[in-house]
Amino acid sequence: MNFLKQTLFIITVCFILQYFLPWWTLVIGAGLGGYLFGTNGWTSFLSGFIGVGLLWLVTAMVVDMQTNSILTEKVAQLFPTKTPALLMVLTAVVGGLTGGFAALTGANSPRTR
Question: Does 95 map to a domain?
Fold first, then answer.
């Protein structure tokens, strides 16, 4: 249950931060989630990975629908994948790894409580 709370916390905080600030602020939200919930390393990593990965996947799908796939297809041509679906999966994996390592860092930081 703590895993689900941490994941929802990370999704919410990262969504709010990225709405107003640059993309890399997800590290702050995921690290804060790892620190506050104090779970072990693997649980924090998976929570950050799933939380930020899902957030970025949904965001990529929303942008794809809003632009009628024009933007996604043009960006996909820059990469060797050539398919917009694989581009969305790669986007989610990059965001997920960043969020996972940030949550892991937050979970392993020393506590002053």
Answer: yes
pTM comes to: 0.87
Longest pairwise C-alpha distance within the chain = 51
Number of domains within the chain: 1
Of the chain, the end-to-end C-alpha distance in Å amounts to 23
In a domain, 25, yes or no: yes
Q: Extract the tokens encoding 111.
A: 């506590």
Query: pLDDT-derived band of residue 73, with 50, 70 and 90 as boundaries?
Result: confident
Torsion sign across C-alpha atoms 101, 41, 38, 15: positive
- pLDDT of 69 reads 81
How many residues appear in the chain?
113
Give the integer Cα–Cα distance in Å for 14 and 24: 10
Range of the domain at 51: 2-107
112 domain-assigned: no
From residue 83, give the alpha-carbon distance in Å to each of 79, 80, 98: 9, 9, 23
